[in-house]
Amino acid sequence: MSEPRMSDPRPHTGEPLALDLLNTRWMQDGAPQDLLTDTDGLALWLAANGLDGTFAADATTLRHLLQARDGVKAAVDGSPKDAAPLVDAVLAHGRIRATLTAEGPGELPEFPSPAWGPAWLAARNYLTLLTTAPDRIRACAHEACVLYFFDTSRNGTRRWHSMATCGNRAKASRHYARNKED
After folding, report:
1. Percentage of the chain with pLDDT > 90?
2. Exposed, middle or buried: residue 2 (CB in 10 Å: 0-12, 13-18, 19+)?
3. If pLDDT is split at 50, 70 and 90, which confidence band does 5 have?
């Protein structure tokens, strides 16, 4: 009989892999939270991203994934030039092998050690986002939120990771400020 899996406590999931990795840190009731404090949290993150059948939730994988999170965060929050060595250090542990499949051309990621797999895939996904639409990689605009999202709105003007939470808080704050002045 398998152990029951804990539910994902994060307030925002489902972003591209690199941003979902950043969203393993969040604020709850004014206190910082971190899903990746242990291998149980790693197992949950791997499962949430469909990687649990491929990679082990062990201490080595966790250490590599934290290194990738630090590199991607530095790149998203700061200068890609300054963060490049951090991201490149993770990318050095894998490569893409071109293949020909029955469906046509394909690519397979390869890692000298499977423990680098999740970290490498997240770093590689960040490069894909940069290639696709770097201006759509966003931090939530709410001052108390630390979450990230990839803006898929038609006109590219999304400001909050979630309109239901942070967007609503911002609207409520503006409403309160207007009514307080009256």
Report:
1. 76
2. exposed
3. low
Q: Is 65 exposed, middle or buried (0-12, 13-18, 19+ CB in 10 A)?
A: buried
Distance in angstroms (rounded) separating the CA atoms of residues 176 and 171: 9
Q: 0.90 cut: is pTM over it?
A: no
Burial class of residue 33 in the structure, from the number of CB atoms within 10 Å of its CB (0-12 exposed, 13-18 middle, 19+ buried): middle
Written as six digits, the tokens of 51 are 């990687």
Alpha-carbon distance of 10 to 21, in angstroms, equals: 11
Residue with tokens 């490498």: 120
8: three-class secondary structure by DSSP = coil
